[in-house]
Fold this protein.
Amino acid sequence: MRDISGENLKKKNVARLSILSNTFLVFMKLGAGLSIGSISIISEAVHSAVDLVAAAIAYISVKKSAIPPDGCHEYGHGKFEDISGIVEAVLIVAASLIILYEAFMNLAGGHEIASQEFLFVGIIVMLISTVMNFYVSSRLFAVAEETGSIALESDGWHLRTDVFTSAGVMVGLVLIRITGIAELDSIIAIGISFVILHAAYDLIKRALGHLTDRSLPEGETAEMLEMIKRFCGNDVSFHAFKSRRAGPDRFIEFHLNVPGTLSVNESHELTDRIEEAMKTKFGRIFVTIHVEPSKTKKD
């Protein structure tokens, strides 16, 4: 059996790490952006501020989803992670629109980097941001894959997006330092906003899939069906397989056809073995099996 309590602790710890790293990056980027007068760095500070809110939401949602089923939520609290994904996506869209507005306004009004001599500081800030976010996002992805947490995976994609945008801003600042073309700053900010919007679209699509009880991915379903088949034989079969997901929790149900001569205890033991195998492989999974008598073959 997988250690669910240990997985929950890992989720909380990596979510805290994301909060701390984003808090540091918000202040660092904002300070550099204001001192240099760079809209692209300020847009990156906004991006990190959104990441910080998202990290806080992810932390709250993983704590909530770890609560066992109770009288009010008999199927568990997994969908709190999916709801957090929707909220995070809305925040991403809002931040992107703000960045787009500021960038176009600067292009229309004529933008100039106020402190050319401090461009090197901005380049260093973006380099630090790229390295930090790559490390933290890698940790988030690893724990998300291990625990099946969409909240942590979403937070990981937030930061991985920040890796690419920070690297883009860094390259842009280098080009501005070389060419002196200040408009590159706003153009890069516009590019950043579209990258963030794409991340928001993917996040909304996946979270809505869980909230609307979309079936599990084909790869997972095929693996589960193959596992059930190993418990079947000439006298045992199954049909009516269904699946869905809520946050880190998977739900499956199917009908198991057993010989009519099999006792209630023997049928129950068989379903217990199937459920145990599923939990060992997939962790947080709820298995519902409806036992039916097989049709007796006539000579």
About this structure: The longest strand covers residues 237-246. The radius of gyration is 25 Å.
